[in-house]
Amino acid sequence: MSLSVSAKEMKAIDECTIHTIGIPSLVLMERAALGIVEALLSDMTFKQPIILCGPGNNGGDGLAIGRILYLMGYEVTLCLIGPPDKWTDQTQVQHQIATNLKLSVLDDVPDNMNEGYDIVIDALFGIGLDREVESPFKEVIERINQFKGPVVSVDIPSGLSADTGRRFNTAVIANRTYTIGFNKQGFEQLSAKALTGKVTIIDIGYPPEKMIKHFLESREKNE
Q: What is the mean predicted confidence (pLDDT) over 69-82?
């Protein structure tokens, strides 16, 4: 799909898909995780991924990606940063699924990610981030950027504005970004290209683009 959307438009598309079309949010999350895993395995070779997840739905995507890779036989390390009372409903579900499968989820990042891991998957923040990155996430992002191997971001490099393409006080520098559903408006800016690396759009079954455009236009008129 060629549509390029803002964070607000992307949230509206999710709302339309979930509440108007009737596809549950957890189904969309599973489709996103499966699509990213498929693309990731097609593009890259690795054995020991570390996946750094935040408390929001981007973190839920990361947990689902890690679980799928784990079930495929990869030596996965999952880290979920942030207190449980900040986890979204979907992230809570994904954490419980991982726990049920006896997949350990760390609450902090190992001291040296350059030892024992051959890829970092960034799932700290999605397109909803609209402010400076605070501790402990700021330090985690800085450590990701010190990693010597490939770095992949889920939907958007954490710390990058989906609307303007500028980084906040810090942002992940990714080699590849697997963005969900549609290209993000900020990716078109030169400032963003140095952070996203190669961008691949993952189709997860949103309504046709014509229907999405009509929905967004109707929503704008009613606001």
A: 96
